[in-house]
TrEMBL record:
A Pfam family hit: BON
Top-level taxon in the UniProt lineage: Bacteria
Classification via InterPro entries: Bact_Kbp, BON_dom, LysM, LysM_dom_sf
SMART domains (UniProt xref): LysM
Name of the molecule in the record: Peptidoglycan-binding protein LysM
CDD domains per the UniProt record, alphabetical: LysM
Domain called LysM: residue spans: 99-148
Entries under PANTHER family matching the protein: POTASSIUM BINDING PROTEIN KBP (PTHR34700:SF8)
């Protein structure tokens, strides 16, 4: 499962009908906006297309995760202009200093921190990198996709 693929039945339940999906996903992202300007969402057949502009590749990564960690979304297509990047959007969304991780049953942020940083007490670093998709560090769920910042 790559960055742009998600589990359809996992995540926040924002909409009941596909006709409401684009508006509800846009509303959700706007309420927790990590820095996307001119945001709009198109939704069809489980695919959320995110349109906007930002000065930060990190903001674009977070918006992809916010949309993708929504029930009913199976794929996110980023149509985001990243102003500080002179390469294509896909390369900017999958940099070498970030890894994407799908939470497994039995995981905790401290367990994930131990795996990536060899120190369970580094879990706040993971939480801070994912505040838009994780509201409480004790409430994560299997199938949720998160960012792991690397050194």
């Amino acid at each position: 499962m790559g960055l742009f693929d998600f589990a359809k039945d996992i995540g926040s339940k924002l909409f009941k009908k596909d006709v409401d999906a684009a508006a509800k996903i846009t509303e959700y992202i706007s309420a927790n906006n990590p820095g996307i300007d001119d945001l709009s969402v198109i939704f069809k057949d489980g695919i959320a297309t995110i349109i906007g502009a930002t000065d930060s590749a990190e903001a674009a990564q977070k918006v992809v995760l916010m949309a993708g960690n929504t029930q009913g979304v199976t794929e996110v297509v980023p149509k985001i202009q990243i102003n500080d990047v002179e390469t294509d959007v896909v390369a900017a969304l999958e940099p070498g200093n970030v890894e994407y991780y799908v939470i497994q049953s039995g995981d905790s942020l401290s367990k994930i921190a131990k795996k990536y940083y060899q120190n369970a007490m580094e879990y706040p670093r993971i939480f801070e990198a994912n505040k838009e998709v994780i509201k409480d560090p004790d409430l994560i769920y299997p199938g949720q996709k998160i960012r792991i910042p690397l050194d």
